[in-house]
Design goal:
91 residues, alpha+beta, 3-stranded antiparallel β-sheet, 19% strand, globular
Length: 91
């Protein structure tokens, strides 16, 4: 997640965010913490309607990345898999 989307969160909340495995975990964490997400944050978590700029693996830096759409039709997000190291992440 982009650093500017973490503004206003405590260090403890940011550490908890790092343990989330998907956007549903992140949304539940925000609810549990009583954090009201901005429109920009909700857009980032749900996948929004814009294209992601995630074209390189955050773990190894490879540009050999496979992009897929995931979700239930209402809350869609992009999921990525690095073809070099196998790392998986969502945007």
């Amino acid at each position: 997640m982009k650093k500017e989307l973490l503004k206003g969160l405590t260090k403890e909340q940011i550490e908890k965010i790092k343990t989330c495995e998907n956007s549903n975990d992140l949304l539940q964490l925000a609810k549990d913490e009583g954090v009201e997400l901005t429109d920009e944050q909700l857009n980032a978590v749900s996948g929004g309607c814009g294209e992601s700029t995630s074209s390189t693996c955050p773990k190894c830096g490879s540009d050999k990345v496979k992009k897929e759409k995931h979700g239930n039709g209402f809350f869609m997000h992009n999921a990525y898999t690095c073809k070099s190291c196998g790392y998986e992440w969502d945007d």
